[in-house]
């Protein structure tokens, strides 16, 4: 299978970049599953159903979230009707929405997408290791089970992300980090066959502070005086993420390549081999 | 000028990788300044003078540090005799050692190396923006001033690192992050001419938890029971960092390329153009 | 019923104070249940079975713990044989020991003691609200159920502690905080009948930094250079905690009085009214 | 001299309590200096000049602040005209307002009031120890110098507060904590003569979560879903703080007594002895 993943979409610059580059990427890579983390898509703060629908119309299959899940308060009441919007799996019991989704892909194949919030330097949350473990025990990767498993681990600390990668190694097709808004260059296949990248990077304008206007963010941090509200930077966005090809017999990864298209970063456009 | 920088060296795997690849890199790139962050070189915890001397013997000019500066307690008493070991500039007044060093490079050129500790999700420390600003105001980059300025910003949060990059933009040759132990793929030249990379990545074994043995780190984080002390992973290390070429008239950057050699990561070996 | 609770015992000064004052307090108050938080009893770091046995010999019924539970590594292997040592209830599944204990008190009455770790400014941990809720739903306070319920909430933030107090209000006899090592003066009966105190205070020498030697703690914090290991201050300890009387029909609290005896703090010695 | 200090005033309940009890307290104690921490006086978020003026009209001499200093943005532009509003001394250089004030008290005596932000579990800030040290070195307590020195240390961690107490011991009349919104029962005179209390407690409604509506705070913390904005609880407030008498020759403390009047907490009304 071919899997395409994009990291946190930040504001209009990020949305425009994703939607502009999707046609070419679909032509080029013909992905069986495309997932985007949308937690900052609505002006930097959460996602709306309208924006999610634009992603779906562009060919994206699933929108994942993170610590900004409820920034758009309307989502609390509507997420239960949104089978393809996935919020963190380790929210408290009784939280609206779902923490993972099992989809039908082409050719009757099944793909599982999970979203989890990590905890180091973040808000208190239930154990993401236990939560992911429960999902993985209920959905075995490979023949007779699920054909591909993608886990979006939304977290700050590189240590926790690498540990989660090893924790899932051999049980998922791809474990990919989000939230830092900077792509890492450590895409790799872990020893037991899971593709891994510490962070996919954001989709947004990199002449910024993690996608937000740099002047405002700098004033806030350096002077510690009130500023206008942080809003997304408006220069050309870069689409950031990764592309993975899996072995159809095992569901494990054969390759992982970084995706960086448009905007200010060095470009990386993967080619399809399968 | 040509500048070579390596991120946090973790244990023997990291030291061996740096020392093994230095001869080739010197041949290939002929750097005017080579700097390595050594804060985890001694078994993961700080650096010793002996290890620093091995780096110097291999052609490294300056060793920078970070939050692990004093893990090897002997350094407190000896760092004042070590002009080429630089500890964070924003430690309390009266701290032994120096926070920056002005070196004589080839051809009578002057290079400044600064080390600063950032603060988000880290130990309380004096304002790194004010501290770096003081150093930059006392050492102007470009004709009649300093020929190259390298600032190693040791921090956790990508937002703070990007803000520091913009804060120094136009006033330094290179602002490069350390501490996350994962290389980022956002190497770029900022709008006013400063080369920037959110994190250089560690020099060490990437089949690990940020360079330390993955089984121990996982047990500690997942089970929350006592474990043996974390120690460095022992597989083949990757040398991680970046290579920068500057404009001799302005001291600003013309190019920045990632360096990733050996070990498990995708390889990136820059070429010299100047 | 009459309940006596002491906060974190810190080192020898704290142990000596508890053991010296227990005989008088037993005479004076004749408690049905006496509980002490022992997480710093062994030189400031955890508790040993030997020390717990000294507490039991002095008439203490239960020893609770906190974030220092496993500082004495031997306890991991022995805690399962210790029915009266209670570790935090919201540790990961599979953790040795128990998070609460149901005891037989005088006259066939049943008392429940729970220990929970809060999360604000502390290590990531599973939801203490959900964990405590499960215990309280399985053990109803009052006629036909449990005669008294004591919950030791071990946490940093006063907000989280007050919220936990209200969360348990009407369902527990006493919710009392530990971990800050400073007694609060807000002992009160909440609107639905639960006695509450944000922090019981430590049992130890208050001419210190939360029970540890002040010179060492100050050097560490102010100079940020290596120091000797923090160890408990050795002046006369104050026994700190609270005394609660409950209504035998409901299990709810009728009174709560602070306990501060010996050492440097203002003295508060409750009287028995029931 | 006689000094009266009140902790963080939270919303209308806190303001009403302070203003209602001031006449009696002035009659009873005839203070030479009265200081209140006003950082939550305006609906829980900062202070306005209008509210500060109400405090001054009630006989309060100085209003101190904390991490909520700029919640009312207007204060940024007006604080320079407010000699008796004191913001934290360790804000970045160039911050409007002042971090301490030297006042003329009755009989030509001089009193110094300092406000400092601590750092553990709080926003990054410059070293409060260095900042307070500079102020204390410029203003010596005792004969020929300043007659009384009050330092409001605004912080979360009890350890840092106790260390700051010892750091100032013998150099200040009173070191008193704020920010936790819960009064501590550890008021004491430190070995070298400085009165100390880890936290003065808030002035506000204690049937709450640190002064804010308990239902909203609980929903936010337990369910992690969006709620209405946190606003102050509206029940009867308790005035919380401490009363100190100093030795006129040395400026050091002779007594410290807690103040808790009105509302739900146990009452403590000091008497004047001098
Ligand atoms: Fe994000
Ligand atoms: Fe996020
Ligand atoms: Fe490091
Ligand atoms: Fe570090
Ligand atoms: Fe403790
Ligand atoms: Fe503790
Ligand atoms: Fe406050
Ligand atoms: Fe505060």
Describe this structure in words.
Four copies of one chain form a homotetramer. The first copy, chain A, is of the alpha/beta class. Chain A has one domain (2-204, 236-261): 4-Layer Sandwich (Purple Acid Phosphatase, chain A, domain 2), CATH 3.60.21.10. In chain A, 24% of the residues lie in helices and 23% in strands. The first copy, chain A, is built from six helices and twelve strands. In chain A, the strands form two sheets. In chain A, strands 4-3-2-1-11-12 form a six-stranded mixed beta sheet. Chains in contact: A-B, A-C, A-D, B-C, B-D, C-D. Chains A and B meet through helix 5 and helix 6 of A and helix 5 and helix 6 of B. The structure holds fe (ii) ion (FE2) (8 copies). Chains A, B, C, D: This is YmdB family metallophosphoesterase. Chains A, B, C, D: Keywords: Metal-binding.
Brief summary of the model shown:
The structure is a homotetramer of 274-residue chains. The first copy, chain A, is an alpha/beta fold and 274 residues long. Chain A has 6 helices and 12 strands.
Number of domains of chain A: 1
Any idea of the CATH class of chain A? Alpha Beta
Oligomer: homotetramer
User: What order do the strands of the largest sheet of chain A run in, or round the barrel if closed?
Assistant: 4-3-2-1-11-12
Q: Structural class, from secondary structure content of chain A?
A: alpha/beta
Total E-strand runs of chain A: 12
Helix content of chain A: 10-25%
Return the average pLDDT of chain A rounded to an integer. 98
Sheet with most strands of chain A: 6 strands, mixed
The fourth-level CATH homologous superfamily of chain A is Metallo-dependent phosphatases
- The CATH architecture of chain A: 4-Layer Sandwich
State which percent range the strand residues of chain A make up. 15-25%
**Cα radius of gyration of chain A in angstroms:** 17 Å
Biggest interface, chains and residues, is:
A-B, 42 and 42 residues
Shape of chain A: globular
First-residue to last-residue Cα separation of chain A = 8 Å
Which hetero ligands occur in this complex? Answer: fe (ii) ion
Element order of chain A: H for helix, E for strand: EHEHEHEEEHEHEEEHEE
> Count of helices of chain A?
6
* Low-confidence runs of chain A: none
CATH topology label of chain A: Purple Acid Phosphatase, chain A, domain 2
């Amino acid at each position: 299978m071919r899997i395409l993943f994009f990291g946190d979409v930040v504001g209009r610059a990020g949305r425009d970049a994703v939607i502009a580059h999707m046609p070419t990427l679909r032509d080029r890579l013909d992905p069986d599953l495309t997932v985007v983390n949308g937690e900052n898509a609505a002006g930097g703060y959460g996602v709306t159903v309208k924006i999610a629908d634009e992603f779906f119309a562009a060919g994206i299959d699933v929108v994942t979230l993170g610590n900004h899940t409820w920034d758009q308060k309307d989502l609390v009441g509507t997420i239960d009707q949104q089978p393809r919007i996935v919020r963190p799996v380790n929210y408290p019991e009784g939280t609206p929405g779902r923490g993972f989704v099992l989809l039908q892909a082409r050719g009757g194949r099944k793909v599982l997408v999970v979203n989890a919030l990590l905890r180091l330097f973040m808000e208190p949350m239930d154990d993401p290791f236990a939560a992911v473990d429960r999902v993985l025990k209920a959905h075995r990767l490979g023949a007779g089970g699920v054909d591909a498993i993608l886990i979006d681990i939304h977290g700050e600390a590189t240590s926790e992300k690498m540990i989660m990668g090893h924790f899932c190694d051999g049980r998922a097709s791809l474990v990919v980090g989000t939230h830092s808004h900077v792509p890492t260059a450590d895409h790799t296949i872990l020893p037991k066959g899971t593709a891994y990248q510490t962070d996919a990077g954001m989709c947004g304008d990199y002449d910024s502070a993690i996608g937000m206007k740099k002047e405002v963010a700098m004033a806030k941090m350096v002077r510690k005086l009130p500023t206008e509200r942080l809003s997304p930077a408006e220069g050309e966005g870069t689409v950031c993420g990764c592309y993975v090809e899996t072995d159809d017999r095992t569901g494990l990864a054969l390759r992982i390549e970084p995706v960086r298209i448009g905007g200010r970063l060095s470009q990386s456009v993967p080619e399809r081999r399968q």
